[in-house]
Amino acid sequence: MPGASDAYRSAREELFRTETDLKERIGAVAEKRRALPSGPPVEDYAFYEGDRRVQLSELFSEGKSELIVYHLMYWADDDEFCPMCSMWIDGLNGVAKHVGQRANLAVATRAPVEKLRAWAQRRGWDTIRLLSDDGEAFARDVGAEDTNGDPVETVAVFSKDGPTIRNTYLSHAFAFGQWGYIDLLNPVWHLFDLLPSGRDDWNPSNDYV
Predict the structure, then answer these.
(1) Which of 93, 112, 114, 203 could make a disulfide contact with 125, Cβ separation 3.0–4.6 Å?
(2) How far is Cα 188 from Cα 4, in angstroms, rounded to an integer?
(3) d(CA 167, CA 66)
């Protein structure tokens, strides 16, 4: 921009080099992710999509052999959905039609069908596939519940080759003593990172939606 000081221009050029390095590192990580050996075969888990019972295998549409599932945290004792997960799904709902050109995308949760339906209506989730787990097996196996039965923020990726479904990738928001392992799925943090004030200590809430 006109009027930028020499100090600003110099610092911005250095930042650009750092941003380029980050872009290349992200690309290298994605390449390693794609190069993972074949993941373990999984059972044909069952879900409820509204009033209809569906199997994991039915979530793969014709010509698309890959599936991304985000598991929405729900606390039954408090009858509360996770505000962080809900923010992520707000974004996923917005890009679901684009993702659907390449892969299948769905949200699953341990919440009952009627609770999920009401929450989706409140949030305006109208383009993404929404599923309630039929039992605890899926959440348990992908690590979306810990040993105490508490929910865990989880994203799971599956591939289907003939009748065989494999889990190709799993990640959780918290791992190795740190948060943020699936932050790349949400643009809000990255938009805040563009601000001089950064992310600060902001966290999403269900109160304003």
Answers:
(1) 93
(2) 28
(3) 10
Number of domains the chain is built from = 1
**Residue-number span of the structural domain to which 146 is assigned:** 46-189
User: pLDDT tens digits for 127-186?
Assistant: 999 999 999 999 999 999 998 889 999 999 999 999 999 999 999 988 778 778 888 888
Q: Is 24 a member of any domain? A: no
Q: Report the C-alpha gap between 7 and 197 in whole angstroms.
A: 20
* Interior/surface letters 146-179, b for 16+ CB within 10 angstroms, e for the rest: eeeeebbbbbbbbbbeeeebebbeebbbeeeeee
64 falls within a domain? yes
Q: What is the pLDDT of residue 32?
A: 97
The verdict on residue 151 lying in a domain is yes
Domain-embedded: residue 81: yes
Q: Given pLDDT bands bounded at 50, 70 and 90, which one contains residue 9?
A: very high
Cα separation, 209 vs 199, in Å, equals 20
pLDDT digits (tens, 9 = 90+) for 15-48: 999 999 999 999 999 999 999 999 999 999 999 9
